[in-house]
Batch of 2 targets.
Target 1
Amino acid sequence: MCGIVGLFLKDKSLEPQLGAMLTDMLITMTDRGPDSAGIAIYGGSSEGYAKLTVQSDTPAEDFDKLENDIRKRVKGKVAMRVNDTHAVLEMQADQIATARAVLTEVRPDVRVMSHGESLEIYKEVGLPRDVAQRFAVSSMTGSHGIGHTRMATESAVTTMGAHPFNTGPDQCLVHNGSLSNHNSLRRKLRRDGIHIETENDTEVGAAYLTWQMQNGATLGEALESSLDDLDGFFTFVVGTKDGFGVVRDPIACKPAVMAETDQYVAFGSEYRALVNLPGIEDARVWEPEPATVYFWSHNAAPTAQEKAA
Amino acid sequence: MQTIDLTEVGLRETNKMLHAQAADTNQTVWEITNARGAHAIACGLDAPIEVTVKGSTGYYCGGMNQQATVNIDGSAGPGTGENIMSGKIVIEGDASQYLGATGHGGLIVVKGNASSRCGISMKGVNIVVQGNIGHMSAFMGQSGNLVVCGDAGDALGDSCYEARFFVRGTVKSLGADCEKKEMRPEHIEILTNLLKEAEIDADPADFTRYGSARNLYNFDVDNAAAY
């Protein structure tokens, strides 16, 4: 099972409601997977700055003076926003790599959820309603976002096994399905120096896309090649700084419904997730085709089946 | 006409009310509003009633249907009309995957497109689709007719038995042991009746028939090494 929702706003006036709309969509999908939930939100960026979203099981201790400890070692300003078990560290974009290295040293138990100019990922074990509430997702604004509720099959129910997974900068992946060749692919990717933390299948899918893109592929090309190299069932929704994409495996037994109006493009594992969206009655609603990459971007005219740039 | 607001009444109560209708019920026309993609709407009906669902439905609408007519005034989710025994389901919009799976009888009409695995393991149901159908449709189809006024996707009729497939448009590929067949007068007659019953205006002469080549029916000793 697992439930996926995604929302890409074309109409800027809806941006203050993005978090609330995504939360509502995700809660509707609760019975597709009650184990853990997560949300990736593209909340906007400031020129030259980037964000590192981190998580700790003991936030009171780990986030105490973390801002100062990082600031001592990186150039420029560092600002920290704590949100329950997560914290967003904002700093100069060119200092992110240094900050990650410092973090491993000063707070070895703190995990990086995401990095990028716009992206923030929040995820925890629990029901979508509870997870959304603890991070106050409803009050978040942004241009687009992706949510996931998990029914675990391939690995343990943990924060690190929850979706979305961060792939490259500002890139994230959620997955409904199960990959069957994740063990062999994990070994191969680790040999190539790709960091994979858990025994989770989706993390391998995310790492695979990262690896492809490090070797020069565009996100669209990486998704296309995933159709050849990943064995198993998947409906993937990927987020990038400017847009989001959808791809289903050729067998396409994992459900997917999309809706588009002048105001938004929405994705749901089921139509139920979309019923409260404005103007859904008159939206174009369809099922994405198997083995076809769909992509919408704020940078270009939103067209389906366009190869991602 | 009886109208049920699904969000107010709830799914179990709604289905319970429909199940309570006997063969000689006077309440023959029902309308369900606020479907909102809910699962299992109007499942397991067994009375000559007509139920119209306003809006799109989720999984398994009209599943196991007997006698009743279920109209879906919207699009239908996965497994709609699964194991239909008799009666009729009419979908105004599109149908998701495995429409009418394992259906034993009755008729399903789709005014839009049907997705993958349409009529998988069909056992006597008739399915008429005005648009296109997806891949692996009628996989292991045993009996009944699948009529497609548009195009069929990959692997139509893979490993089929005696189900018949009539396609007006193109077939992307045929599944294992499925082949093009001659359209004889009896097939024109079956198709004419199905199109009429489905209230779809199409010329039977424009369709091509496909069905089992019957090569998988018996063990072929030349394939012994494959096992």
Target 2
Amino acid sequence: MIKGNFIDNLPKVYGIYTGGFLAFIIIMSIAEQMGMTAKTIGICFVAFTVAIYAIIGYLSRTAQADAYYVAGRQVPTVFNGMATAADWMSGASFVAMAGGIYFKGYGYMALLVGWTGGYVLVASLLAPYLRKFGCYTVPDFIGTRYGGNLTRFLAVVVLTVASFTYVTAQINATGTIASVALDIPFQYAVYVGLVSILLCSMLGGMRGVTWTQVAQYIVLIIAYLLPVFWISNKMGAGFFPHFMLADEVSRIAELEAQFGFVKNSAENLKEVPKGLAGITKAHSAVNATPWAFISLALAMMMGTASLPHVMMRYFTTPSVKAARKSVGWSLFFIFLLYSSAPMLATLSKLSLIDPSLPTGIIGKSISEVQSIDWYQNWNQANLMFVSDFNGNGTLELNEFFMGGKAVVLATPEIAGLPYVISGLVAAGGMAAAMSTADGLILAIANAISHDVYYKIIDPKAETAKRLVVARVLLVVIGFAGATIAAMEIQGILGSVIWAFDFAMSGLFFPLVLGVWWKRANREGAIAGMALGLISGAGYLIWVRNGGSGFLGITQLTFGIFGSAVSLVAMVVVSLMTSAPSAATQRMVDEVRVPSGKSILGKQH
Amino acid sequence: MSKQEQHWEKSRGLLFMTLAIWFVFSIGIFLFGAEMNEVTGPFGYPLTYWFTCQGSLGIFVILIFWFANRQEKIDEEFGFSERGDD
């Protein structure tokens, strides 16, 4: 069926795959009609998709360093865009983003702007130059540009701190979905999730991860868009929600004005299960100060440009030109999901609070709401809660509470979509969490195996030995992440946003100035990375322990402080010490020109 | 000035232009978020709300492709573009 080179056949291969997945959805919906239980459908969806990823991972096995670290540098632009989008969009983006918008409105939208705007920085400041450099990992660039083992080692430290903060949240998300879909306890489900993650990356390294991430993107985008379009059509809100929900948005504003945001007493709130929230912020009004919005967006943008698991995706393109275009495609594929999240939040909110809709529950009697099937299901899952605080017997806006995840997970059921959609959403969430976890674990393991083991400890190691070390590290880091995830101390390690702040504190300026400022030298880079990370982390600890902070920098935006310290330290120390050698300056000149050989050879 | 220096000067010019546009749509307009939201934007959404949902995001996508094309032209002009595929 498929002849010739795999790369030339990619559109055909993934075309058949997409068709096959759609056929699978149709078969499942027929099975549902014939009486297959909800639980079986959930198991089928998760098991089927994970099995496919595992097969792709096995077929991509390799024994070559070039293929293991950078997928042989032959991933075409559009496909690398899809892989980056899957790498980027985590379980949190998939499951929690719409919920964040639903509850926090404008203040949360800063994340959407930040997580997309960052790609402009990636495309213009970094990706093409790092691709020209020809490095395998981000610390590889830092170590070669500035010279010395200490710079390389510090870059590995920053990378590990940022990526590890991020990865436990992702393994946690895979575990949550696996435990719900397969109906097993969370402590075991975490390891089931981990094994699925490792199946994709262990044998093929970056090559395996690339081709599974493309497959995962296709699953997750279908799983996100199909329900949004379906619900919008079913509610009669418009067949293309993105362009047609203005009336719904203004209707929500109207209802908010009518109900008002009544503040609950602390005593009443004690009754509400942990993690659930009520609607307390306006949906489309501006409810944050300009600085609160801008500082969060800025932190996310600079963090995006410093996260190694994203940057290393652009090392896999065939050329510098392709790396630039590929950033555009990545953002396009991300845009498809991000622009749909606010629409889902709008549809979800309106269907719940509008008394004139059959699904609306505000204004109904409490006992009536408590007898609705889907309310009982989600109440049992600890994602929904109502209570008659004022004792008038009807449900008010301030008496209805929901978990953030419920917006994505429960809305299809509330809108009356068949269960097959819920199974599809579970598979999508699993794909999103797995693909990000894979990219992160690989980034950490590659940095340690390539930069610490091969470049610092044993530069004479054979390729076979290097790849064994890389794979062992992959498993060790995966298990460490899963073990911490199984302890469920999410509050401490689950914050995805911190990963961005850590990365920007330590890496943003050393990376950018490495390309754009020839005078930047080794001493400056060491000061920038070390002081940036230390001051950022110090600020976080201070604020978490009751410190008041300054300039409105919160625990979510501490990277602004860390990166400012990093910039000052790097410039001052660079200028106080001698300029980089002539050879280094020539190297920077070379990096700035797309044509010609890369700085680091094909096998290094 | 050598060919390489000229190339870099032009590339830097393009960078500043790209970052200026980026700044406007990621930071600049949100200084006036509250005021702008009074205005009705595309498709009838409140303007600031529209920018956060679609506007800024879409502009970033277009901006990156525009940047990539311009940079390619600059590379070609100085004979620094790579041969072959993309």
